[in-house]
Amino acid sequence: MTAAPPVAPPAVATGAKVRPPLLRRLIAGNTLLGVLGFTSFLAVLETVPRIGLVSPEYLPPASEIAGELGRLLGEPTFWVAAGDTVRGWFLGLAIAVALGVVLGFTIGTIGVLREFTASTVEFLRPIPSVALIPLAVLLFGTDLRSVLLLVVYASFWQVLIQVLYGVQDVDPVARDTARTFGLGRLARIRYVTWPTALPYLLTGIRLAAAVALILAITAELIIGAPGLGNAIGTAQSGGAVAEMYALVVVTGLLGVAVNTLARLVERWVLAWHPSIRSEVAA
């Protein structure tokens, strides 16, 4: 008998990238570990107060916190407070991004101005935003403007510094080539500086979004402006411990949502960038 001819393996399109089985197993394993870790954390929160290691008056079981969270979701006052927090966060972030982009590109593209403002930026940037709370209360009381002052101040530096780094990272050869071809300042910013600085800008916006949420809730908690921070302080002073923890959980979920949204926007806007394309291909 003659041996059967060997069967060739199925052809794989050269443009398609096959994910290695080991990598798939690692990703699935990391996801499973993350779920197990979070489940273990909830189990600890449920067990510790029930066995008496911590008094339920200070740390209610996770099931009680979850029940209180479900009750809050049906309360109109909760949604009003959440809306106040989101409004302060969004307005403050928008103002900070606008100021950071305009001043960042202006300072970054004018060498004399960059040197002139360097010491001032390095002096003002490390000042904690919470140190401005007395000034905010003195100027605006418990109004939304107090929250905006703190949010804008904290978020502005995240955007400005990243834009300055992005402008300085422009390839000198590309800059000189654009100048040689007669492109004006605005054209060079549009076609040379902007594509280079955009990844830095989006990183700054992502960092500023998280900082803005932190400062918005902090301002509400300390100043007493309307929002989730104020609701947390009210629940704590009134002895509603489970409600306080439920509101803290909501702020954490807001933080996760903000970070996830910022990353999705970053990946969408930078779909052309080699770093994002390599992540998708992997």
TrEMBL record:
Q: Please report the record's description of how this protein sits within the membrane.
A: Multi-pass membrane protein
Q: What is this protein called?
A: ABC-type nitrate/sulfonate/bicarbonate transport system permease component
**Where is the ABC transmembrane type-1 domain positioned along the sequence?**
82-266
Task: Give the family, as the similarity comment puts it.
Answer: Belongs to the binding-protein-dependent transport system permease family.
Residue ranges spanning the membrane: these are: 26-45, 89-111, 123-141, 198-224, 244-265
Could you say which residues form the signal peptide? Answer: none
Q: What is its main location?
A: membrane
Which domain of life does the protein's organism represent? Bacteria
- State its location(s): Cell membrane
Q: Which CDD domains match?
A: TM_PBP2 (cd06261)
Q: Which GO terms describe its cellular component?
A: plasma membrane
> Which UniProt keyword terms apply here?
Cell membrane, Membrane, Transmembrane, Transmembrane helix, Transport
> Example GO biological process term?
transmembrane transport
Pfam families, per this entry?
A: BPD_transp_1
